[in-house]
Write a structure and sequence with these properties.
By secondary structure, the chain is an alpha/beta fold. The protein has helices spanning 47-53, 84-90, 106-111, 122-135, 139-142, 155-167, 185-198, 211-217, 235-240, 245-251, and strands at 9-17, 24-31, 36-40, 65-72, 75-76, 91-94, 173-177, 203-207, 220-225, 228-234. The protein has a single domain (9-251), classed as 3-Layer(aba) Sandwich (Rossmann fold).
């Protein structure tokens, strides 16, 4: 386990460009363990680009690049010899739209990441899949149909299935990129409650355009604008007494 004084995840002068998305420049941030960290700001200001750089997802896009450092428990994830596959087991990601594997069952969706390093005993898989689905508050709803198609689930259930798939390999960090943007209010509430519960075990970084959601679920908030990190601090302080006028203008709806 990381030294409690050391941030679980830290960026040092991180700059990135991800395809046609807005880039970010010289972002230095620290994310403590067992907290929820919200990234807010108008569309096209680099939040998702920054998020993807935290687990090297930009590398699947031609022409994308990153400079600077991302440190997980003090070790640079961009150092030579770091396995991207193993890294993404430590830093999982949940996307805006639910992304279950369409040809796989509910069970196989959750187990997918566990099979990357070789076959496992069925009893071991059963235990991990059940625990992951329980953590995602989905077990009671699917325990009698684990081997049916994941595509038969509702949108909110599919998103919780993707969360179960992310937590199954026991990551240290989970990245959420607007995880409730395509969900109805009930589905949104379930995900928010789940995020609050999951921070007891994981460090969470979440991009959201919903100011009320950021205020409800996060411990710290970072405001991004035009590719720069403008202000970072405890969520209560950011939303009630921001230090930067630009942050206050965004929070109060004067732009964005």
């Amino acid at each position: 386990m990381a030294d409690p004084v050391m941030p679980r995840l830290r960026t040092e002068t991180l700059s990135a460009m991800y395809g046609s998305f807005a880039g970010v420049k010289d972002v230095s941030l620290s994310f403590a363990a067992n907290q929820v960290h919200a990234l807010i700001g108008p569309s096209g200001c680099g939040k998702s680009t920054f998020l993807r750089a935290l687990n090297r997802l930009h590398e699947v896009i031609e022409g994308a690049w990153v400079s600077g450092h991302v440190l997980l428990d003090g070790a640079d994830i961009y150092a030579p010899g770091v396995s991207v596959t193993q890294l993404r087991r430590k830093i999982g990601m949940v996307f805006q739209k639910p992304t279950p594997f369409p040809t796989k069952s509910i069970y196989d969706n959750v187990a997918a990441g566990l099979m990357l390093d070789g076959r496992r005993k069925r009893a071991e898989l059963d235990t991990v899949v059940e625990r992951a689905l329980q953590r995602a508050a989905l077990w009671d709803e699917v325990k009698d149909r684990l081997h049916t198609s994941a595509m038969a689930l509702s949108g909110g259930q599919q998103q919780r299935l993707c969360i179960a798939r992310s937590v199954a390999p026991e990551p240290e960090v989970i990245l959420f990129d607007e995880p409730t943007a395509s969900l109805d209010p009930m589905g949104t509430q379930r995900i928010e409650e789940l995020v609050f519960e999951l921070k007891q075990e994981f460090t969470i970084v979440i991009v959201t355009h919903n100011m009320q959601q950021a205020a409800r679920v996060s411990d710290t908030t970072s405001f991004f604008y035009l590719g720069k990190m403008i202000e970072h601090g405890p969520t209560r302080q950011i939303f009630t007494a921001p230090a930067i006028e630009q942050t206050e203008a965004y929070i109060t709806g004067r732009f964005g």
